[in-house]
Amino acid sequence: IGKDASSQITLVSLALERLQQWCKAHQVNVPQQFVIRHDNASGELKNATGFKFLMWLVMKDVFAVAECAQFVPGHSHWKADRELRRRVGRAISKPNRALERPEDFVDAINLETKDDAVKAIKVEAVMDWKKLFEPWSDVEVHNHVQTCHMTNKAIRAPHTFRFVKRKDMAKYVAIESHLT
């Protein structure tokens, strides 16, 4: 599986499916706001396909608000990243453990993480999200990636994007007086 918008969105959609199942099993409502943090990489989620996915979640009333924000430089040193590295490292470094198939990796992770906080699954296929959103080709995204032209004009690309229906903007979007 490649590392592109479709693979990242497929992983997010699988996680959202698990969230919905968990909420149903525990008889709680799915949260109204969805926030995802990700790398500041246009090849993953910071692109038109990623943004259209978030718009689609709001349009389909999966969430009232969908927000994405890019991690700051140095985030790979945060506690969550360190803990995941520690768990995965422990799982794959056992002597005499052959990880030749994706299932071997899944089994190794799940064996080392006996709680529900971290579970590995094998992703069998990736949906072509870009193709799904082809009818939205007139929706354009601009100024979301830092360019030399922007830097030269002392303009910073935004790092947080919030998607909400117009009718709900007053409820979910804070308008700060210093912004124009």
Pick out its properties.
disordered C terminus; 7 helices; 180 residues; 3 strands
Description:
- 39% of the residues lie in helices and 9% in strands.
- With 180 residues, it is mainly alpha-helical.
- The protein has a 3-stranded mixed beta sheet with strand order 1-2-3, covered by helices on one side.
- Strand 1, helix 2 and strand 2 form a beta-alpha-beta unit.
- Helix 3 crosses helix 4.
- The longest helix is centred in the N-terminal third of the chain and has 21 residues.
- The C terminus is likely disordered.
| Overall morphology | globular
Query: How would you classify the helix and strand content by structural class?
Result: mainly alpha
Strand order, sheet with most strands: 1-2-3
What percent of the residues sit in helical stretches (DSSP H or I)? 25-40%
Order of helices and strands: HEHEHHHHEH
Question: Number of helical segments?
Answer: 7
Low-confidence stretches: 175-180
Give a short account of the largest sheet: 3 strands, mixed
